[in-house]
Amino acid sequence: MIAARQTVTVFPIYTHQNKVGGLVIFGEIPASNRSVILTIEQATNVISFELMKQSALKQYEKRAKNEFFGNFIEGSFSTNEEIKNRAKEFHLHNNQKYICIVGKLDQEGKSISLTQYQIETDSIFDFIDEDLDSSSLSAHLFIKGNLCTILVEVNDIFTEIQASIQGYLESVQGKIAGRFHQTISFGVSNINQELLDVPNSYKEAVNALRTGQLSGESQFIHFYRTKDISELLRIIPTEDLQEFYFHTLKELAHSEREEEQTLLQTLGVFLETHCQISH
């Protein structure tokens, strides 16, 4: 092993980021050899400049992606077609089912400046983004305020994917606790049937997160519980829902007669009021 060892000379590569790289040269370069050192330092400056350009491009892409998601969630787009077209830029497809996960750092009882909190949040969310790339989940990460949102592409039924999501989030929580000495909690939505349903799923995930926070927990994973029939109908596959609709309502589903349209509206109100009829 001793014979296999080699002498190397390391030159640091400086960027604006915390992560510092280095250029490794095999062999010893004496400090007195100024011409060689100057050449290598010029090379490190070129590498540093390229790394900063790549970092600036990534930051721009991240801002564009997060801006799209924020506008999408807040209903700022004028048409569904605009949403679908913009979503394609970020590899999101409308006919895909998704589960929405919202995460937030636990800060109860901790005294920390806003700047330090933002630095910690950015570092941890970047770590989650990198960790997702090596996971078995096909997912997309977005940042909105102090919340990270993970959209997981789903092809299985909820009970089958739930265990995978639970296991992955527990793994991430463990890694963050070990590496950053920080805890994070997650709220998880039900499955939605298409991309346009994501704003509803985001609300479900946020509600699940708040439920855990109100209970005084930390480092938790809460799954959203469906509260009414309208929410239950949203998690049923569109094809099955249409089949049920036409099978149950029969001719009424196709009727254009005024009295029967009124009946359909009454049924809609019945569902919206959680099937409660006031006397």
Describe, in plain words, how this protein is organized in 3D.
The mean pLDDT is 84. Strand 6 (184-192), helix 5 and strand 7 form a beta-alpha-beta unit. The strands form two sheets. A five-stranded mixed beta sheet has the order 4-5-3-6-7. A two-stranded antiparallel ribbon has the order 1-2. The chain has helices at residues 34-73, 80-88, 114-133, 158-180, 198-214, 229-234, 238-249, 258-272; strands at residues 8-13, 21-26, 97-105, 139-144, 147-154, 184-192, 221-223. The protein is elongated and about 95 Å long. By secondary structure, the protein is of the alpha+beta class.
Secondary structure layout:
Layout: E1 8-13, E2 21-26, H1 34-73, H2 80-88, E3 97-105, H3 114-133, E4 139-144, E5 147-154, H4 158-180, E6 184-192, H5 198-214, E7 221-223, H6 229-234, H7 238-249, H8 258-272
Parallel strand pairs: 6-7
Antiparallel strand pairs: 1-2, 3-5, 3-6, 4-5
